[in-house]
Design goal:
Rossmann fold, alpha/beta, Heat Shock Protein 90, 11 helices
């Protein structure tokens, strides 16, 4: 379906110096493959996708789509393959048109399809993404997840053989991510060829048949998700895929801002798409502080979340102590019961700093 050979993209910066965004990238994508494209910000992921979607041109290199050299200056318009579908980070729906109007626009204006045929095809496509009942709704009345599904339907209605997704869930509230990912998983099962730029590591691993890791404009690794996420060959890949998201607090007195800490924990859960863990984490922290209410020594709290395996740990160190508050004879029984009910596993260690309790959430 796609063959890229030695693609380079260089732009001129404000000071006149060149900046290489893509550096000698080559790969093949076969029909039915789902490729997740991951890498740090500024690694060239979106630029690569825009070149594949014929929205930008490389400085040099060769790009074949279904055997057509789409960069050739001698290529005639009637030789161009149907442009790959593109789903943007922002939904880009026309606000003055209904959902149905957004989807039929290209059918009637570009493909010159009769209005009744365009409407029928649009309704069938909306049904595929579970939005048939929203056909007459205006985009502003839809949730973010519904708007992105409408954008996917707008792409699907043109029957592309390839769909390119550029961070399709990054603009969504975490509660709406699953509905868009569900549609993409359905397309993958149907055999749609897709390339997906995403920062959600679990999704990148679960949906893909292959994974590209881009770093500083280079295609540093290309392999199966199992190879990339479990046995990366390059240190840069290993550092990226195994990154742990961490939130830390140091409590030195009882006058600390409890509400600000709780707000930061909630924002942490929202940012990294684990809203279901918000209540367990906040309850564990709140009840542990209740048990440590008469403390005189500092307390350290750390929340660690692995995007790779989805595991979250809460670690609390009661500095200078040698006995777990969960094991004290005078411990509040209700608090202990709540804490144990919120964690799947609790480990206690005696460290040089004091007692460290680790809770799996």
């Amino acid at each position: 379906m796609i063959t890229a050979s030695h693609l380079n993209k260089t732009v001129t910066q404000a000071d006149g110096s060149p900046l290489r965004i893509l550096d000698d990238i080559s790969f093949h994508v076969a029909q039915g493959e789902v490729v997740s494209i991951i890498g740090p910000s500024g690694s060239g992921k979106t630029t690569l996708l825009r070149i594949l979607g014929m929205l930008d041109r490389p400085t040099s290199g060769k790009l074949l789509i279904e055997g057509n050299d789409i960069l050739s200056p001698t290529l005639q318009p009637n030789q161009l393959p149907l442009r790959p579908g593109f789903v943007f980070q922002q939904f880009n729906l026309f606000p003055h048109l209904s959902v149905l109007g957004n989807i039929t626009l290209a059918l009637t204006k570009v493909l010159h399809m009769p209005a009744n045929e365009a409407r029928q095809l649009a309704l069938e496509t909306l049904a595929r993404v579970s939005l048939a009942e929203k056909a007459d709704a205006m985009p502003a009345t839809l949730s973010g997840g519904q708007q992105q599904r409408a954008a996917i339907a707008r792409t699907l209605v043109l029957k592309p053989k390839i769909i390119l997704f550029d961070e399709p869930t990054s603009a969504l509230d975490p509660t709406m991510v699953a509905e868009v990912q569900g549609v993409m998983r359905l397309l993958a099962k149907e055999g749609m060829t897709m390339l997906v730029v995403t920062h959600r590591m679990r999704f990148a691993r679960d949906i893909a048949t292959r994974t590209f890791f881009l770093h500083q404009g280079r295609l540093l690794e290309d392999g199966t998700p199992d190879q990339i996420f479990r046995n990366p060959q390059q240190p840069e890949t290993r550092t990226f895929v195994q990154q742990i998201r961490t939130l830390r607090f140091a409590i030195a007195s009882r006058q600390f801002d409890f509400y600000d800490m709780m707000s930061q924990i909630r924002q942490f859960c929202i940012r990294f798409a684990i809203p279901e863990k918000m209540d367990p984490i906040t309850h564990i922290v709140e009840e542990m502080l209740l048990l440590l209410g008469n403390y005189n020594n500092p307390v350290s709290i750390e929340v660690n979340h692995s995007e790779l395996d989805g595991v979250t740990h809460v670690a609390i160190v009661h500095q200078g102590e040698t006995l777990s508050p969960l094991e004290r004879p005078d411990a509040d029984e209700l608090a202990v019961m709540i804490i144990r009910g919120m964690s799947s596993n609790i480990a206690t260690d005696l460290t040089p700093d004091g007692v460290r309790l680790t809770f799996d959430v």
